[in-house]
Amino acid sequence: MFTILPIKGLFEQIEGFYCDGISAGLKPNNALDLGFIYSDTLCDVEALFTENRFQAAPLKHYQMYEKDFKTNFLLINSKNANAMTGKKGIEDINTIFSSLNYDVVNPIMSSTGVIGNPLPIEKIVKGANSFNLKAKNAYNLSKAIMTTDAYEKNCMYEVKLEDGSSFKIGAVAKGAGMINPNLATMLCFICTDANVPKKDMKEALKLNSKTTFNAISVDGDTSTNDTVLLLTNKKSNTYNKEAFFEALRLVMHDMAMLMVADGEGAKKAAAFEVKNAATYEEAEKAAKALSNSLLVKTALFGEDPNFGRIASTIGASGIKSDENRLVISYNDVIVYNKGELVFNEEVEQAAAKVLQNDKFKITCDIGVGEYDFTAYGCDLGYKYVEINADYRT
């Protein structure tokens, strides 16, 4: 038996982890733009990366380390993705780390921002050399890694086991646009003091990514930089596999839901539940088709319960389906029922009222099997176009 409790504060509370965010001049107006995570002991680390074939330099740099390496330092910059920068992008990372005025072991870099520009090495080195490695300010870190995010994203949990022992796990993340992870622009850094066996770290990340980061979409685009990093310093000397897997799922789910709700310009967060599909793969395929559909997203923006767009997307997804078995509902309001037209004025008004909420669920019961999957998405409106049209300017 175990208990998982959300606790106030951020992952800086975990013994041995330090973090902060500063202004290094990458963003205008002295905005925070450079951050770090430091551990006073070496950490085991595991990662999930984007499946975009053009992975950014920081991801390639990470993968050049030997298998099962340990680290004690993570450097994160915003404003510049260091992607599509060729060999120089990796060389620039090595230059930065070799220029630090403190010792770090197998340092990791993570970047987010505009693709195709070289890193401003001098600014990053100057900023990184001003870090106070004993700082504990995860809030500043969460602000420093933001790009088009409207707000910072973080969470913290404590896990208590039956024998009285406990461990903590928390995360900081960024992500609001280019969100259609396919692993895991999104970054997520998870820290814990749980004594997790190395083999369990990768298994837990992969398993939980399926229903969290891999189940969300803002705009259907997969970034070159998507990264999920899990660091453990093992200082609690406590571990329970079932408890850890569930706690990690909660952390990843929290971060994923914050990203969806913060979709660039988004006002609505929707869960797309596909039930009773012929296979798990088909349930997932249909749910993700709904979360990615621009027509569905714009209907949500207009608070229009146009179930025809939902049905059309299900049919176009290519899964096994039958309109005489299909049931579509907005929360508990059924708008289509196994071939029966129930969409009268009263039903439409009730469904429209559901869409006036900030969060809601659209359920599609396929009626041909027993497999379910839920994907998560948001609306798409004028602000998304404005943000991305002006992204580089």
Describe the structure.
This protein has 393 residues and is α+β, with helices and mostly antiparallel strands. The chain folds into two domains: 2-261, L-amino peptidase D-ALA esterase/amidase; 269-389, Ubiquitin-like (UB roll). Helices cover 30% and strands 26% of the residues. The chain contains eleven helices and 14 strands. The strands form two sheets. Strands 1, 2, 3, 4, 5, 6, 7, 8 and 9 form a nine-stranded mixed sheet that branches. α2 (86-98) runs parallel beside α3 and α5 (198-209) crosses α6. The longest helix is centred in the middle third of the chain and has 21 residues, at 241-261. The chain is globular and about 70 Å long. The mean pLDDT is 90. Heterotetramer of two alpha and two beta chains. The active site is at residue 185. Pathway: Amino-acid biosynthesis; L-arginine biosynthesis; N(2)-acetyl-L-ornithine from L-glutamate: step 1/4; Amino-acid biosynthesis; L-arginine biosynthesis; L-ornithine and N-acetyl-L-glutamate from L-glutamate and N(2)-acetyl-L-ornithine (cyclic): step 1/1. The record marks 184-185 as: Cleavage. Keywords: Acyltransferase, Amino-acid biosynthesis, Arginine biosynthesis, Autocatalytic cleavage, Cytoplasm, Multifunctional enzyme, Transferase.
